[in-house]
Structure formats: C-alpha cells, structure tokens
Sequence to fold (166 residues):
Amino acid sequence: MTFVLPRRLPVGTRNDRLTRRAGQRRRYGATESEILADIRIANSERSVEPLEDRELRQIARSVARYPPAQLDSPIPRRRDPIASRRRRAERLLARPSYPRPVRISPSRFSVAPRRGGGKSYVVDVEGGSPACPCPDRRSGRSGTCLHIEIVRTWATQNERAWEGPR
Ligand SMILES: [Zn+2]
Fold:
C-alpha cells in the first residue's frame, strides 16, 4: 500500500498524516532528525493550520523508536494507545460544536462526554501523572485516556501551560 501525503492537511488529520509520512521515511532508513526535517517542511507547506513544533518532535521521536526493518508493513498506529486517544481528541476538538474543556481550578478541567447526555469527567493535571476518574484511565494501562488527551490537546492549541508530562 502506497501512502501519498495529501497536498492540504486540514485540522484533525495533521498528526495522523504526518505520522504516516514519518513512518514511510523511517522505513527507508531515515534518522529521527531527518524525519523531523521532512515533516517540518510538509507541515509548513501543507497544513492549513500548522501543528506546533513540539508535536512534530514527538512524531519523529516515536517513529524513530522503530527499527527500519520492522516497518516493511505500516506502523501499527492503532495499537499505540496514547496516539490513538490523541488523534481522537484532536478530531473531537476540530468540531466547532464539541464543548471545550472548562478550567475549574488551576489544575482541574471539566471535560464533556464524547456524546451529549453522558456525565462529564474532571481531569486533574497536577503532578507527574494526570488523573481522570473514568474507567479507561483507572485501568492504568496507558497512563492516559480520551479526557486527558482532550485537555492536553486543547491546552496546547490554546498555548496554556500544560502542567502534566508531555
Ligand atoms: Zn478519562
């Protein structure tokens, strides 16, 4: 399967498409810094609203963790629990109708449910490990959840201080 990077990258697709592009470069043996240079150019030329550089650095770093030989098939992105929640958070926040997180104290944010009618969750980003009372976060497997990633994405987009780990 050949992936061709689209000429324009709308909000909500940027991380996903640039990660695929990075995976292609890695497959052919590019180093982390070579990948970063490549997706920086693609991001500035193709993104309708360019992603922040630190997000590009995260993409390059995570893709470079894979040895090139393992990338004969596409990167198993779906199995990366943090990346998949992050992509979902970015897609939700790209919808103008999706409610923004509400800051209710210096470190706590109320996050609306994914669909109308559910209960909202209070995410606490204080300290080294962001907390959320939802079952996904409490299972502890990935150290994150959709709600934490929504706060992280939203805070990054709004250039607020993100007090948790990156
Ligand atoms: Zn949660």
The pocket of zinc ion is lined by residues 121, 132, 134, 136-137, 145-148 (CB under 6 Å). Residues 32-46 form the longest helix (15 residues). The radius of gyration is 16 Å.
